[in-house]
Design a protein that fits this description.
93 residues; 0% strand
């Protein structure tokens, strides 16, 4: 493998290769993100809704943005459009 990059594998020098696609979001990250939206963008309120510290909620939100490469606003729009971001306070009915 002379000089080739293996997606999801290793460079020939033993360094991890770049992933071919972003890592999937975790259920906990989605729960925290939904709580954040429902709390009107308040990290402390979102943390209280899911029973974690505000610093942990901030970390989940930051990790979700890093994994997807999207902003918080883009995540809200995409999550609602694709159906994976369910916010009880925003659901009809």
């Amino acid at each position: 493998m002379s000089g080739s990059l293996l997606l999801g594998g290793w460079h020939e020098r033993g360094m991890p290769a770049r992933r071919a696609s972003p890592r999937p979001r975790t259920a906990r990250q989605v729960d925290v993100h939904a709580a954040f939206v429902e709390a009107g963008g308040s990290v402390p309120d979102a943390a209280a809704r899911v029973g974690i510290r505000p610093s942990t909620a901030k970390r989940h939100l930051a990790d979700l943005r890093a994994r997807t490469g999207l902003t918080t606003e883009q995540l809200i729009y995409r999550g609602r459009a694709e159906g994976w971001l369910v916010v009880p306070g925003l659901e009809p009915g």
